[in-house]
Amino acid sequence: MGKKNKQFVEKITAMEEDFAQWYTDVVKQAELVDYGSVRGTMIIKPYGHAIWENIRNELDRKIKETGHSNVSFPLFIPESLLQKEKDHVEGFAPEVAWVTHGGDEELAERLAVRPTSEVLFCEYYSKNIHSYRDLPMLYNQWANVVRWEKTTRPFLRSLEFYWQEGHTAHATDEDAAEETRKMLDVYTDVVENYLAIPVLRGRKTEKEKFAGAKYTLTIESLMHDGKALQSGTSHHLGTSFAENFDITYLDENGKSQYVHQTSWGVTTRLIGALIMVHGDNRGLVIPPRIAPIQAMIVPIAQHKEGVLDKAYALRDRLTEIVRVDIDDSDKMPGWKFNEYEMKGIPVRIEMGPKDIEKEQVVLVRRDTLEKEFVSLSELETRLPKLLEEIQQNLYDKALAHQKEMTSVATNMEEFKETLENKGGFIKAMWCGDIACEEKIKEETTATSRCIPFEQEKVADTCVCCGKEAKELVYWAKAY
Ligand SMILES: [Zn+2]
């Protein structure tokens, strides 16, 4: 096949050559997105959307399993409402899109297109929470939000994106803390066990936390190019929103108390992570558990009598156990091989006249491109097992990469040298002073990713100022 068919598939830039261009080529060639007519917006195409749906379905199931209900809140936020929490509005102000007119009429008050919906939920909670019996209130919404970003890239940073945002209200600080951690665990589960992406877990520094939160917990993952990507955050909001929005309840003694709140979200960014963690120079590699199509049947010499009939019969048989499809178009098999490698479909099933004669098929796994011959009678046992092997292999490979790309630095010279020559995560001690954090960012462009739950002591002194260290921080250049 090789040469002759290559012309049918447009080439993508090698990731070693230009990682950013490779990413752009893959999202386009794998037909995940197209650009919207407003700069920085994206059209998520059917294949990209099917991936998002699988992520969403899994997460939605777990959000409901943990006791939350889905709701839909409005797209617009009155300016006066948005400004009620000072830190919060300052955090978002530069990115807010405003509606000033309804038809020809200028509005008496500007309306923000939601950048996030904390304040809408707060207003609702202030009206609907009265007694300790109303708590906890556990809501989630699947929605689109708008943030007027200056530089944009599909999935990673776009003017409008899709996400879920959880908003909960609790009687006590401990209950809110438990919720914050619980939802981080849910995110960890989905990202590690379904997207096959290992994560670092920890707390954000004061500088990097969500505007208005008491603290922010985060999962951070490492991309193939050694840059980090924040993959999900869960915020303990404390009582600051409750104080500003007057969200109180009467406790069991009839005493008025402020509620303790949380919010948490993951976005279509996760698709960006998926691309940059598992993809290669042939395109996407989708972990089987979230792959819209887990196995693609490509008939060989399909014009020969009986081949297509057998291939359809095979599809009907496998529909029971995996998400399977068949390409019976008149394109060359070589074109189809390239196309489904580009789309990252975990397994390709080849079936031609010779295979039919021998009552076998050829399975080609996308992650390693290894081929194996499997007799038709064993396919029902072998195929699901192979999919699990691929799932595990993708996770193991990503974890090995993350470990290999994690270094220790004890002074700024080491820090800069490692970041320059190797990239990845840098573990370094920190004194806790924001001045050091800012200096590191200024001198290296690396930001603090998280203060890991699992603390180690890699040195006694702060990597930046040399004063006594308080805690270990993971640093990296990030998307
Ligand atoms: Zn310091």
TrEMBL record:
Cellular component annotations (GO), alphabetically ordered: aminoacyl-tRNA synthetase multienzyme complex; cytoplasm
Keyword Transcription regulation assigned: no
Keyword flag Transferase: no
Highest taxon listed in the record's lineage: Bacteria
Location (main, coarse): cytoplasm
MF annotations from Gene Ontology: ATP binding; catalytic activity, acting on a protein; proline-tRNA ligase activity; transferase activity
Domain description: Consists of three domains: the N-terminal catalytic domain, the anticodon-binding domain and the C-terminal extension.
Family per record: Belongs to the class-II aminoacyl-tRNA synthetase family. ProS type 3 subfamily.
Quaternary structure note: Homodimer.
Name by which UniProt lists this protein: Proline--tRNA ligase
Taxonomic source organism: Compostibacillus humi
